[in-house]
Write a structure and sequence with these properties.
By secondary structure, the protein is α+β, with helices and mostly antiparallel strands. The chain contains four helices and eight strands; from the N terminus they run ββααββββααββ. The protein has an eight-stranded antiparallel beta sheet with strand order 1-2-3-4-5-6-7-8.
Length: 242
């Protein structure tokens, strides 16, 4: 049979992205307290296809992923991206891994789970240089004694969420990013209660999270989006670093 994928294409049209999506795959993530944490990721892998190729072997994406089975972590991202570029003869390679990350709750509550879940996504690209971005979603809750008025949660204790994306100058723990965000949430929540406000505002919380991220020298770029869930609608504020 002819190898259609590797036949030359004379139309000179580059395909921006070609690949596979929503692969469910076990990965290990570095854990500051326990060394490593095992979780399940939803993986997307794709490449920029040069115009001279008609297509690519989709099975090669999974073959590359399987080569790292049981040993996938953030440190392996560049190795996987380099192999994708080489094996698929691509101009650029991209990989996204969305996964749940679990941390113990700060205060034990017999009525809640001992661990808190955070939705994370690591996105890596490699053309000439590697570009790596971590996105973390941190839930925002209100204490039971929160004042009434604007900012009331849709359900008891649930106010909204903070979604932060960061790029690093050097290695930084996922836990430490979450801690920076949660410290900002705690400070804003306390300020709202101390001043008897009607509730936290998305604008003020966005600024406070950004201030905490700005002070961390290991972070070279970030974006922040804060969303508040209300009855029948939601409000949000967003900003990013220079």
């Amino acid at each position: 049979m002819k190898d259609i994928q590797n036949q030359e294409d004379h139309r000179r049209i580059n395909i921006k992205k070609v690949g596979v999506k929503t692969i469910s795959y076990p990965i290990t993530v570095l854990d500051k307290a326990r060394s490593r944490q095992h979780t399940i990721a939803t993986v997307n892998m794709y490449v920029n296809l040069p115009h001279q190729f008609k297509g690519t072997h989709m099975s090669r994406f999974v073959e590359i992923l399987n080569r790292f089975h049981g040993a996938i972590d953030i440190a392996k991202f560049r190795v996987i991206l380099e192999e994708m570029k080489e094996k698929l003869e691509a101009e650029a390679a991209h990989i996204e891994m969305a996964f749940a990350y679990f941390l113990p709750r700060k205060q034990e509550d017999p009525e809640t789970l001992k661990s808190r879940r955070y939705e994370c996504c690591m996105h890596g690209s490699l053309e000439v240089e590697e570009d790596l971005e971590l996105r973390v979603e941190v839930p925002v809750s209100l204490p039971p004694a929160a004042p009434a008025g604007q900012g009331l949660p849709r359900s008891p204790g649930h106010w909204g969420k903070v979604v932060a994306a960061v790029k690093f100058r050097n290695f930084f723990w996922i836990e430490d990013i979450i801690t920076l965000i949660e410290n900002a949430i705690d400070s804003e929540r306390s300020a709202a209660l101390d001043h008897e406000k009607n509730g936290m505002s998305v604008e003020s919380l966005t600024r406070r999270v950004a201030e905490n991220l700005e002070e961390e020298k290991a972070i070279k770029w970030f974006s922040v989006k804060v969303q508040n869930l209300a009855e029948g609608y939601s409000t949000f504020a967003a900003m990013e670093s220079a």
